[in-house]
Amino acid sequence: MGFGGSSADSAHERKGLESWEQHWWAKGDLVAGVDEAGRGPLAGPVVAAAFVVLASKDEEVLDVLSRVNDSKQLSEQQRESLFEELTDPKFKGRTSWSVAECSASEIDEGNILQASLQAMSRAVHGLTVRPGAVLVDGCNRPPELLEPGEKWTRMSQRDLEARKNQTKLARFFSKAVEPKAQAEEEWRPKEVEAVIEGDGRVPSISAASVIAKVYRDRHMEKLDVQFPLYGFKAHKGYGTEAHLEAIRRHGVCAEHRKTFGPIRQAIAKDNAEASEAATELPLRGKRARTKAELPGVKRPRKAVACGS
């Protein structure tokens, strides 16, 4: 198990459709490509997908994969079209795919890195098959797919410890993302490989990228109906100016990630204003007293008549 090379690694460039997968296909192993969508938004879940080709010689499936690329490089229309093809019921028994997510509250309980890796692990475990190899986009491998104690990040132990000592980055490399103790009978793949820029280089990862992206976009459109004040359908939870303005006007909702900077700041501002309002509350509804009305000050008599 290990980490794939960078995009400059010519040995693993996308030379052909199955240039990455064929190594494991030759061994008789199934290969799952895994990717996530939604690490950067201020609201909504992070979603991961896993995709497996069950028959390496299935020309119809391979034809679809040949037209798939990193979801970020495709238009919305292209993604939607490819999503329908990749998830077409006619491919049942010829491909296997799974989608999983970690909610905004789960992200807040740990951190976005931990949640992303957790969603990836859930997606792999959600497959109807057990792949021998798992190819993951990025530079980290889901700890729960690894043997206990196995390295999950590309960084050296020295670099990892250095990152932990940096306040700003410490929460992303805490022990929360270390592999958890697992029962001996729990399944793990033989190989888990992290591939930098894998969503544009490995067909199975590209397919997972498209599925995760479209699934999450559709989910955010549903949240737009539930929370119509924020415009989730338009920006999918990302920190656009329109989204930030909606937060300033309406506060945050249950789907906002409360540990993310702009949301944390908005909550702090609302709390400060609420505290200030609570402090002023006892004075509301009472007329300010004049000096003459203060204790110990004799009130002047009202004039009963006046004239010039």
UniProtKB/TrEMBL annotation:
Q: Does the keyword Protease apply?
A: no
Localization of this protein: Cytoplasm
Where on this chain does a divalent metal cation bind?
35-36, 137
Name the coenzymes or cofactors required. Mn(2+); Mg(2+)
PANTHER family, per database record? RIBONUCLEASE, RIBONUCLEASE H2 SUBUNIT A
Q: Identify its protein family.
A: Belongs to the RNase HII family.
Q: Mainly localized where?
A: cytoplasm
Q: What is its EC number?
A: 3.1.26.4
| InterPro entries given in the database record | RNase_HII, RNase_HII/HIII, RNase_HII/HIII_dom, RNaseH-like_sf, RNaseH_sf
Tell me the protein's name. Answer: Ribonuclease
Q: Output one GO MF annotation.
A: RNA binding
Q: Name one GO biological process term.
A: DNA replication, removal of RNA primer
Recorded catalytic activity of this chain's protein: Endonucleolytic cleavage to 5'-phosphomonoester
The protein's UniProt keywords, in alphabetical order, are: Cytoplasm, Endonuclease, Hydrolase, Manganese, Metal-binding, Nuclease
Q: Report residue spans for region: Disordered.
A: 276-308
Q: How is the cofactor bound?
A: Manganese or magnesium. Binds 1 divalent metal ion per monomer in the absence of substrate. May bind a second metal ion after substrate binding.
Q: What does this protein do?
A: Endonuclease that specifically degrades the RNA of RNA-DNA hybrids.
SUPFAM superfamilies (UniProt xref): Ribonuclease H-like
Species classification: Eukaryota, Sar, Alveolata, Dinophyceae, Suessiales
> Which Pfam families does the record associate with it?
RNase_HII (PF01351)
Question: Which ranges carry the RNase H type-2 domain?
Answer: 29-272
